[in-house]
Amino acid sequence: MKRVSPLFLVLLVLGFFFATYNLLTMIIHYKTSTSEQWDLSNPFIQMPGNLMEGGGSKKYHVALTATDAPYSQWQCRIMYYWYKKVKEMPGSDMGKFTRILHSGKPDNLMEEIPTFVVDPLPQGLDRGYIVLNRPWAFVQWLEKAMIDEEYILMAEPDHVFVNPLPNLARGKHPAGFPFFYIKPSDHEHVIRKYYPEEKGPVKNIDPIGNSPVIIRTSVLEKIAPTWMNISLRMKDDPVTDKAFGWVLEMYAYAVASALHDVHHILHKDFMLQPPWDTEVGKKFIIHYTYGCDYNLKGELTYGKIGEWRFDKRSYLSGPPPRNLSLPPPGVPESVVRLVKMVNEATENIPNWDTLNRG
């Protein structure tokens, strides 16, 4: 065999180095790159080591990612209104609040809602799946912001706090909500692309998304870059993309957590989702992601537009009007409570009908 030249070996080493170059560094330095130039091979990416650990308090920082679209803005305004009402109630462990705006520039809610502006993913990289910006937004915020609380609640614009929310996490064990449609064991052939067998059985992956989750800040600092990288890898794989669809980013967070041996305490009362959950009880968050359609007899007509309805998607270009009509008799308490809470917020938020109409 011919002797390999030292120059060839040097070039080979450099080639492997750049082929496995840290995805996070590539995002920061090459924001205008196309998706074909991104290295998605390594699920583990470490955050910088200069992030604060926290001060030992049970308080948690409420953080939600959002865009500057009117659809996102009006939901954030309602969410922030109820945060302010519930924050000081007995039983609440809420700390400060941040809307992490991943539109790359300030918007017209900067003075109304505490906001931290971060960059979106490079154009085209999310492939129309805007939720893919969420983990990247958290990575940037955790790296750049000063966060006083030891814990973080990852929330979403379509959450309203219906009861004072204590810190449900316990030490390094985050608290999460179990979603009935997140079933890692049903997708083992796909999951194993990102969660190798040596890490253990697929049942180690919690049936959760990233929201709502209360998690120690230092733990999220470790998970967030991996969550981002796994999300991009999943979206880049047609088989995974087809299998997970619009909950792909939720699966990515669940897998990233398991890769870091982080397991969540599951709280079914963390959240309720009308119209399927009919009673509020002692639950803490109303998540109004589903449309609520009823006939005038109070019967659910899901899948068919009802004679009475509340669906956030009816208000894509601007906020819902003030004083929405209440549901007809017979509609579950959870739906009635939601509409009353929306009406209270819109009645008391200044410039409701004009500020963010697109």
From TrEMBL:
Gene Ontology terms: cellular component: membrane
Keyword Membrane tagged: yes
Entry's transmembrane regions: none
Intracellular or extracellular location(s): Membrane
Membrane-topology descriptor: Single-pass membrane protein
UniProt key word Nucleus: no
Domain (Hydroxyproline O-arabinosyltransferase-like) ranges: 60-353
Protein's name in the database: Hydroxyproline O-arabinosyltransferase-like domain-containing protein
Source organism per UniProt: Gossypium darwinii (Darwin's cotton)
